[in-house]
Amino acid sequence: MLSDAQLLRVRIKRWTLLLGVLQVTVGCLIGFIPASAIQWYRGLVMAHIEFTANGVLMVAFGFLATEMTLSAGALWAWFALLQIGTWTNGAAGLVAALQGSSSPLMPSINELFPPPGGTANALVDGLLKTCGVTITAALLLTLWGLARRLRQAADA
Questions:
Q1: Of 8, 39, 74, 116, which sits with the fewest C-beta atoms within 10 Å of its C-beta?
Q2: How buried is 62 (Cβ within 10 angstroms: 0-12 exposed, 13-18 middle, 19+ buried)?
Q3: CA 71 to mean position of chain CA atoms
């Protein structure tokens, strides 16, 4: 029989895998949106790439959920941070595509493919900043949980 901690890790693993595959699916479906339906095509390309890449990242991290030693609270925080970080990345591209404007955090794409509405979209900027902070926090929690698991194995 699984302990409460093991059961929680298994549940979070399953949800992370499911939501990761859903995110890849959303990224693929976004690829069907015609360029004529949005204001800035490069934002749509960004959304497609980010949703699919971050979905794959989430699937990979799903397999790590049962390999980490984190408290229940830390595991829930890890799950939430991973979800928020991966989904906001693609959402930033989708908002940019629909509104035709981007963020100063995207200098290369802005230079090569200037958005018609400019580069000062506060929502796109906020989504990208949220993504950066939450994914970094999820990565740090992952490293901490894996290191704790390794330390436990070495002590056993």
A1: 116
A2: buried
A3: 22
- The answer to whether the CB of 84 falls within 8 A of the CB of 130 is yes
pTM of the model: 0.93
Q: Tokens 């970080």 identify what position?
A: 85
Decide: 31 and 48 in contact? Cβ < 8 Å.
yes
The burial class, CB within 10 Å (0-12 / 13-18 / 19+), for 34 is exposed
Reference 67, options 137, 148, 3, 139; nearest CA is 148
**pLDDT, tens digit, for every residue of 30-71?**
999 999 999 999 999 999 999 999 999 999 999 999 999 999
> What are phi and psi for residue 100, nearest 5 degrees?
75, 20
Structural tokens at position 16: 């992370």
Average pLDDT over the chain reads 96
Residue in the block written with tokens 């925080």: 77
CB 123 within 8 A of CB 140: no
91 Cα distance to chain centroid: 10
